[in-house]
Structures are given as C-alpha cells and as structure tokens.
C-alpha cells in the first residue's frame, strides 16, 4: 500500500457516498444525471474552471503590476499601507465572502452563482477605470471585484474534486494552474496596456475580457452528482469536526504570509536599481513557476499523499524565501527566488480543496470550502495590511527584512498545523481500522 493510500484511509475514516450516489448505486438502472467518477466528461467542467481561474486569480496574481504602478507613479506620495487595501480586499473578500457564496452555490446552483460573479467582476473593472482617488479603487477594484470573484470561485472550488477520485489531485492541480496561467498573461498584458494605453483603458479591456470568457465558461459548470435538498444554508455540522478547524487554521496562517512576495517583488526590484518592466518580468517568472508547480503538486499529492506534500512544500517555501529575498543585492537572484517560490509555495492552493473533499460529502463541498475560506480571507486581510504597516514603519520603505520575517513565520506556523493535522488523521485512521472486541 502506498503512502497516498495510507493517508487516504487516515483522512477519511468512513468512505461514505452522498445520498444521491447511494441511490444511484442501489438502483438497477442508475440515473443518467449521475456520471461515474474519473470519466472523461469530467475534464470539460474542470478545464472550464481552469479558464475561469485565469480571470479570478489572474487579477490578484497580477495585481503586483498595478501595485508597483500605484506606489511608484500614480499615487507616489500615498503610503504602502493605504494602497495595500486594494489588493488585500480583492483576495480577502474573494475568499472570505465564500462562506456565503459557497452555501448559495450548493443551494441555488453553480451556474447561477457563477453568472452573478461575472457581472460583478465586469462592473468592478469598468467603474475602477474612472477612479480618481485611492478610495475609489478600494471600493471598485478592491471590494466590488472581491465580492464578484467570490461568486465565481464558490462553484469553481467544488467541481474538480467531485468529478475525480483516483486523479483528484491532478485534476485539482490542472484547474488551479489556470490562476497562474492567468497571472502570466494578465501580468504581461496589464503592463503593456498601462504603458501604451494608460491604466483606465487597461481596466476596461480586462473587464470586457472577463465578461466574455467567464460568461462562456460558466455554461460548462456541470455537477457530477445532483444536489440534495437543503434545510439549512450553512453546513454547521462541519464545526463539530476538529479537522475542519485545523484546515481553517492552516489556511488562515498560510494566506497571512503568502502574498508578500507577489505584492512587493516589483518594489524590491526598484530598490535594487531595476525598472517597472523588471518588476513585471519577475511576476511573469513567479506565475510561470506557479503554473508548473500547481500541476506537479497534484501529481505528487496523488502519489505521496496530500498532507505529506503540503507539509514539505510549506517548509521549503520558508527555506527558499527568507535567505534569497533578504540577501538579494541585485536583480538576478530575484529571478531565482521567483522561479523557486512559484513552483513550491502554491501547493496549498492545489491540495487544500482535495483535503476538504476527502473529509466531506460532495454535495456540501462548496459550503464547507466556503467556511474554511472565510479564515483564509481573514488571513489575507490581516497579513497584507500588517505587511504594508511593517514596510512603512519598521522597514522604512527602503528594505523588506521585517516584512520577510513576518511572512515566513506565518508560513512556518501553517506547516506546524499541517503536521498536527497529519498526526491527528493517522490517529483517527488507526482507530477506524481497529477491530478490537467490545
């Protein structure tokens, strides 16, 4: 038995099907609306999720371009703490509001929820293009886009895990790799549009693209198993399970530290004598490495276990980030940092949904993932605002030593939580497999 098989037994004490799946298995003629796991059809909605992730997370992954432009050009005299609200709210509301949008997706349908997100994200871009003050961007590019993205991400998180069993990690990795692919072309396209057309038209064009592409992809959001009628909007039963709180704590901690490099690598390049284009190129390398890393993370997790893979990646992230970033004295080491950080650090984005899917039934995945993402959103909010304040007050806007230490310690704490989760799941697995007489 492989390590992954052992972990699967440990993390899933009872291998229960949802009521819809049981009904289809017991019926002599299965319902045509329930397709088998690991069927080829499952790649259609999975690839649709991949494309939508390009536009959901592409905005946050490429925000470093806007951040560098706002900090060094458009709002040069504005504090990093104030400007950090824009990017912070994109991700924190995208994840934090998922506690409501995830429940709505399970109750009212994946496509309905996704189309609400498409409209709100498009509106956010268009309104942001007319912004003249920082608070205008906070409300539009930050708040409105973050809420809209939450409506899009709610069904997107649940689709790959419910369509696959044997290749669940790979499917999740392929889907979330879309966020890195989006970061790649979003970063290059955004920088080019800002340089040649200005930031207002850059925002308008991104809005039009988001409306067209996500609108088409939403049509392919199919559930594998029909949802059961729900009496309650939220899956409150999850709160009684220790593993839910461990997953939530890990998500909060890792998101607290994760975004520092994305938001500040461009400014680091400027401090070392680089240009705005150098900052954009570094983000391209970061997202390219991330695209490869997210797919590889799924493959490795299927072989060696989800928690094992996550634990190792979090430790390696700290080992790579702290010395390379803190000791960088020129631009070339930053490229090595971005490549390695991109490949290793975002493993949690691929693996966390898979861990949740091994613990909870498929018909409540969007709700439970939304509840854990609330803590992830709080981590983004606390982490990004704290990093901006640390950069202003303790690093005096001339270095990133204290910001890096803050980020690294939270990622390391997330690794400790995963270790505890792994230890706890092993204990549960041994108890479940015990056949001692009563």
UniProtKB/TrEMBL annotation:
Task: Classify the source by domain of life.
Answer: Eukaryota
The record, for Pfam families, names: MFS_1 (PF07690)
Q: Which UniProt keywords apply?
A: Membrane, Transmembrane, Transmembrane helix
Keyword presence, Membrane: yes
State which residue ranges cross the membrane: 40-63, 83-105, 112-131, 137-157, 169-189, 201-222, 243-261, 281-301, 308-328, 334-352, 364-383, 403-421
Where in the cell does this protein reside? Membrane
Q: Does the keyword Transmembrane helix apply?
A: yes
A GO molecular function assigned to this protein is:
transmembrane transporter activity
State the residue spans of region: Disordered: 1-33
> Ranges of Basic and acidic residues compositional bias?
12-24
Family of the protein in this entry: Belongs to the major facilitator superfamily. Monocarboxylate porter (TC 2.A.1.13) family.
What is one GO cellular-component annotation here? membrane
Q: Which SUPFAM superfamilies match?
A: MFS general substrate transporter (SSF103473)
What is the protein name for this chain? Major facilitator superfamily (MFS) profile domain-containing protein
What is the membrane topology noted in the UniProt record heading this document? Multi-pass membrane protein
Every copy of the Major facilitator superfamily (MFS) profile domain together lies at: 46-426
Source organism per UniProt: Coemansia interrupta
């Amino acid at each position: 038995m492989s390590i992954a098989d052992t972990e699967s037994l440990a993390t899933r004490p009872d291998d229960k099907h949802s009521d819809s799946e049981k009904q289809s298995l017991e019926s002599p003629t299965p319902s045509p609306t329930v397709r088998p796991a690991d069927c080829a059809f499952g790649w259609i909605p999975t690839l649709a999720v991949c494309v939508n992730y390009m536009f959901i997370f592409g905005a946050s992954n490429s925000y470093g371009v806007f951040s560098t432009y706002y900090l060094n050009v458009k709002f040069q005299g504005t504090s990093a703490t104030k400007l950090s609200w824009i990017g912070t709210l994109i991700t924190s509301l995208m994840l934090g509001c998922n506690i409501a949008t995830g429940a709505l997706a399970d109750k009212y349908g994946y496509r309905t929820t996704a189309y609400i997100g498409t409209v709100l994200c498009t509106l956010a871009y268009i309104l942001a293009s007319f912004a003249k003050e920082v608070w205008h961007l906070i409300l539009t590019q930050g708040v409105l886009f973050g809420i809209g993205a939450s409506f899009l991400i709610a069904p997107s998180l649940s689709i790959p895990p419910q369509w696959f069993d044997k290749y669940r990690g790979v499917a999740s990795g392929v889907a979330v790799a879309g966020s890195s692919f989006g970061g790649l072309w979003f970063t290059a396209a955004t920088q080019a549009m800002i340089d040649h057309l200005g930031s207002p038209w850059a925002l308008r064009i991104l809005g039009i693209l988001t409306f067209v592409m996500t609108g088409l992809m939403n049509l392919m959001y199919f559930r594998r198993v029909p949802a059961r009628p729900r009496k309650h909007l939220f899956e409150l039963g999850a709160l009684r399970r220790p593993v839910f709180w461990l997953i939530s704590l890990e998500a909060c901690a890792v998101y607290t530290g994760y975004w520092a490099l994305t938001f500040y690598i461009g400014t680091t390049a400027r401090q070392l004598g680089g240009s705005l284009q150098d900052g954009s190129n570094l983000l391209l390398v970061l997202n390219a490495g991330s695209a490869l890393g997210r797919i590889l993370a799924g493959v490795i997790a299927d072989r060696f276990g989800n928690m094992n893979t996550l634990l190792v990646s979090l430790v390696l992230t700290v080992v790579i980030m702290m010395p390379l970033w803190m000791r960088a004295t020129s631009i070339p080491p930053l490229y090595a940092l971005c490549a390695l950080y991109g490949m290793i650090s975002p493993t949690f984005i691929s693996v966390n949904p898979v861990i949740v899917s091994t613990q909870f039934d498929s018909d409540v995945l969007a709700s439970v993932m939304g509840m854990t993402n609330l803590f992830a959103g709080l981590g983004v909010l606390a982490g990004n605002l704290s990093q901006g304040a640390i950069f202003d007050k303790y690093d005096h806007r001339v270095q990133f030593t204290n910001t890096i230490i803050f980020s690294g310690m939270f990622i390391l704490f997330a690794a400790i939580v995963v270790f505890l989760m792994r230890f706890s799941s092993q204990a549960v697995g041994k108890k479940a497999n015990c056949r001692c007489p009563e």
